[in-house]
């Protein structure tokens, strides 16, 4: 899944997302072979020659001035994350890929203890490839029983695209799925191949047409904060706030927590769900300790 020209792949994907009419261009009498802007239109909007922009897409330009890069970023309507990504690709030049990043991820005991300690707030520890590295009891109740999954299946992207039940668990499944793929894209460094990530992307592209389509869109996303709707058969739909806590010196690990607005119906439903599951867990412990009563 590694592109031989990641700069071209990115720029082509960005201009394909822009409707010509949205930037003041008249509808062309000649049908377009591809959606979005043509090279010459991006060049005109950025104030550079068509030849210069074509050579930039092909990776045949050396140093690019900040002024020119800013003009191209503005023409393509790039957001801050996309601008950072573009500058990384341009400054990298045609250098050969560096050594692969290590595949194994180490979780500090203190971070694992933190995830456990915040219970009953549902919390997950994830790696940059969306691997689920640690979770607490409440996260298992709210999302899935990760302990019963095979270790290789404990990955948010695999779970979303290969487990059909997630489409019921997330009423806004497509939004969640596209953001997850975009986060994988943002964490992929074309000049520092990650064998585990490339393997994951390859497997999911074959197994899921939706994943392959979202990956080709080349969207970028960084987990931050916001709201997600989740459905649980016990209490129904809840609107929850998610927060992302980046873990220092961890090679990209982050904790995701889920809470509800104070006093909201979702808070009541979440509390009922977690209290009910805790009662069941307590009953199971008692049964195991004393044996089933006649």
Topology:
Layout: H1 6-16, H2 39-46, H3 50-57, H4 66-75, H5 80-92, H6 109-117, E1 123-126, E2 132-135, H7 137-142, H8 156-162, H9 166-169, H10 173-186, H11 195-207, H12 209-217, E3 225-232, E4 236-246, E5 254-259, H13 265-290
Antiparallel strand pairs: 1-2, 1-5, 3-4, 4-5
InterPro entries: Cro/C1-type_HTH, Lambda_DNA-bd_dom_sf, MLTR_LBD
GO molecular function: DNA binding
Organism: Amycolatopsis jiangsuensis
Description:
The protein has two domains: 6-92, 434 Repressor (Amino-terminal Domain), CATH 1.10.260; 109-286, Beta-Lactamase (2-Layer Sandwich). A hairpin with a 5-residue loop joins strand 1 (123-126) and strand 2 (132-135). Mean pLDDT is 87; it is low at 282-294. It is 47% helix and 11% strand. It has a five-stranded antiparallel beta sheet. The protein has 13 helices and five strands. It is an alpha+beta fold and 294 residues long. It is elongated. Residues 32-83 form the HTH cro/C1-type domain. This is Transcriptional regulator with XRE-family HTH domain. One of its GO terms (molecular function) is DNA binding.
The domain count comes to: 2
Low-confidence stretches: 282-294
Work out the helix count.
13
Helix content: 40-55%
Shape verdict: elongated
Structural class call reads alpha+beta
Number of strands: 5
Can you write the helix and strand succession as a string? HHHHHHEEHHHHHHEEEH
Mean pLDDT: 87
Oligomer: single chain
Give the CA-CA distance, first to last residue. Answer: 59 Å
Strand content: 5-15%
Tell me which CATH architecture of the largest domain applies here: 2-Layer Sandwich
**Top CATH class of the largest domain:** Alpha Beta
Query: Whole-number radius of gyration?
Result: 23 Å
Tell me the major beta sheet.
5 strands, antiparallel
CATH topology (level 3) name of the largest domain: Beta-Lactamase
Placed side by side, the strands forming the largest sheet appear as 2-1-5-4-3
GO molecular function, one term: DNA binding
Pfam families: HTH_31 (PF13560), MLTR_LBD (PF17765)
Domain HTH cro/C1-type: 32-83
Organism: Amycolatopsis jiangsuensis
């Amino acid at each position: 899944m590694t592109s031989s020209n990641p700069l071209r792949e990115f720029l082509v994907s960005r201009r394909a997302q822009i409707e010509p009419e949205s930037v003041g261009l008249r509808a062309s009498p000649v049908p377009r072979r591809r959606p979005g802007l043509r090279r010459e239109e991006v060049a005109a909007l950025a104030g550079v020659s068509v030849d210069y922009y074509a050579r930039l897409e092909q990776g045949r330009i050396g140093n690019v001035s900040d002024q020119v890069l800013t003009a191209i970023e503005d023409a393509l309507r790039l957001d801050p994350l996309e601008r950072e990504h573009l500058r990384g690709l341009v400054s990298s030049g045609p250098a050969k890929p560096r050594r692969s990043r290590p595949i194994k991820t180490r979780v500090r005991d203190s971070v694992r203890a933190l995830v456990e300690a915040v219970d009953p707030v549902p919390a997950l520890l994830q790696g940059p490839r969306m691997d689920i590295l640690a979770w607490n009891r409440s996260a298992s109740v709210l999302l899935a029983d990760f302990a019963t999954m095979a270790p290789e299946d404990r990955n948010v992207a695999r779970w979303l695209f290969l487990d059909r039940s997630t489409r019921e668990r997330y009423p806004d499944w497509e939004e969640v799925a596209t953001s997850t793929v975009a986060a994988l894209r943002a964490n992929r460094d074309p000049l520092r191949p990650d064998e585990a990530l490339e393997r994951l992307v390859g497997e999911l592209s074959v197994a899921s047409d939706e994943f392959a389509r979202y990956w080709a869109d080349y969207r970028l996303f960084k987990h931050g904060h916001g709201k997600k709707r989740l459905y649980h058969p016990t209490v129904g739909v809840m609107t929850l706030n998610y927060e992302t806590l980046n873990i220092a010196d961890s090679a990209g690990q982050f904790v995701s927590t889920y809470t509800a607005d104070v006093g909201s119906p979702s808070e009541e439903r979440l509390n009922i769900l977690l209290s009910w599951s805790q009662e069941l867990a307590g009953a199971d412990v008692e049964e195991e300790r004393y044996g089933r009563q006649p």
